[in-house]
């Protein structure tokens, strides 16, 4: 199944066709193909000869070799698609079970740290991109995919096309963020970096958007310059956006919509890191003195 060492077999082609037929995202297809290729390399024979016991032993092998819970579940999902859809043998997966992923509290920056981070992002383009990530609570892929036409100054919204889960939604556009985008647009147009109706944050070739890898490099470098010793990524700005809104008493269901979360419980995680709210709670210990 590995494209670098194995020819394009009919089985591999059928697997690729099945994923394309389901219109799976390119990143998802790549992950599923990698999962089946690694199983092929471990099994040392065609995966269509695998047994339920082979799959059980493979999960034990992955666990024993320290694969993380997230990676393990992604692998199981890819194999499940292959055996269910391509081979039509779902019973072979009966011994493979997803594992519970440990839930970690997200890292959140203070507003002062966010300001320092954006200020240390180097040029205007980078500063504006980080401002969008924080000011609208966007994922890094959503920032990179923005087009000039997605900015709606009349309705004060940003249109997010095909975000996570292949869903469109609208994100908030504050007056301060709009002014920052206008400043960047004027500078980029004057320098010939931005095409008509093109990407809001072009890459080295204006016909292409900036890459998510480049944006992550930008924020890591900015964190160093700003001397922020927390583990910072582009997603940290999204976490900080949600937490700061919660601390400002914005309804959690509104935050859920702004983030594009399917489940409220995902948004509710931020209640655990909203320190301003925690500080406002009066401990029962403090009321003992008045008794």
TrEMBL record:
InterPro entries: CB, DNA_brk_join_enz, Integrase-like_cat_sf, Integrase_catalytic, Integrase_recombinase_N, Integrase_SAM-like_N, Tyrosine_recombinase_XerCD. It comes from the Bacteria. Keywords: DNA integration, DNA recombination, DNA-binding. Residues 6-87 form the Core-binding (CB) domain. Signal peptide: none annotated. Residues 104-283 form the Tyr recombinase domain. SUPFAM superfamilies: DNA breaking-rejoining enzymes (SSF56349). Belongs to the 'phage' integrase family. This is Integrase/recombinase y4qK. It comes from Candidatus Nitrotoga arctica. The lineage of its organism: Bacteria, Pseudomonadati, Pseudomonadota, Betaproteobacteria, Nitrosomonadales.
């Amino acid at each position: 199944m590995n494209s670098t060492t194995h020819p394009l077999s009919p089985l591999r082609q059928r697997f690729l066709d099945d994923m394309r037929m389901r219109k799976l995202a390119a990143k998802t297809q790549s992950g599923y193909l990698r999962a089946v290729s690694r199983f092929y390399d471990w099994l040392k024979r065609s995966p269509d000869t695998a047994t339920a016991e082979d799959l059980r032993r493979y999960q034990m092998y992955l666990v024993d070799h320290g694969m993380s819970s997230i990676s393990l579940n992604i692998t199981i999902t890819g194999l499940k698609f292959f055996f269910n859809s391509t081979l039509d043998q779902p019973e072979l997966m009966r011994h493979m079970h997803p594992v519970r992923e440990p839930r970690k509290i997200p890292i959140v920056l203070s507003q002062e740290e966010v300001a320092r981070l954006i200020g240390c992002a180097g040029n205007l383009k980078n500063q504006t991109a980080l401002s969008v990530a924080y000011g609208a609570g966007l994922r890094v892929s959503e920032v990179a995919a923005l087009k000039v036409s997605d900015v709606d100054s009349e309705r004060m919204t940003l249109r997010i096309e095909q975000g996570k889960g292949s869903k469109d939604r609208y994100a908030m556009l504050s007056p301060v963020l709009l002014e920052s985008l206008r400043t960047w647009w004027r500078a980029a147009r004057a320098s010939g970096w931005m095409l008509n109706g093109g990407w809001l944050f072009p890459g080295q070739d204006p016909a292409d958007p900036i890459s998510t890898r480049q944006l992550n490099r930008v924020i890591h470098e900015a964190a160093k310059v700003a001397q922020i010793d927390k583990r910072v990524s582009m997603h940290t700005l999204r976490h900080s956006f949600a937490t700061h809104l919660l601390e400002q008493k914005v309804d959690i269901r509104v935050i859920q919509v702004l983030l594009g979360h399917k489940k409220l419980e995902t948004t509710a995680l931020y209640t655990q890191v909203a320190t301003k709210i925690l500080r406002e709670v009066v401990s029962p210990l403090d009321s003992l003195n008045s008794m």
